[in-house]
Amino acid sequence: MNSDYKQRAELVALNVCNSVIPMDKVPANLLEAYANLCNELLEDSDEKFITAWEALPASATALLPQADFHGFYIANAWLQLSRVAQDIAELADSDEAIDENEYNNIFTRLSDASLKESAKKLKKARTDRALLNSIKSVIEG
Length: 141
Fold this sequence. Notes:
By secondary structure, the chain is mostly helical. It has seven helices and no strands. The protein has helices at residues 3-18, 28-43, 48-55, 58-61, 66-92, 100-125, 129-140. Helix 5 (66-92) packs antiparallel against helix 6. The two termini are 23 Å apart.
């Protein structure tokens, strides 16, 4: 992956996240978690993203550049993880605290679900102009 691709995917992810959560208001520890998530999902060491991208029909991949879709997926994963992290933080104050191994399993399941959901939205956008315009709008910020 070249630096232009990485920069574009990161910009798209930030734009999409900002449409839901003002990222400049996010606490530093959460921003660090966001950066780690970005790096991990951009790295794609398990090749889940590239496999999903290559499995999409050409009519879907023609709608967005790969870097834009990658950023869109990263943002969706972050937003889902943020919601779950809030629940986990509330549990941490109780006797039901989640151990790190279980948390990692949750992360993997959420990122997989987010990739599947993002691919589904892109496929649907082939015939749903309003959805495509909405996706493009949040990508551009």
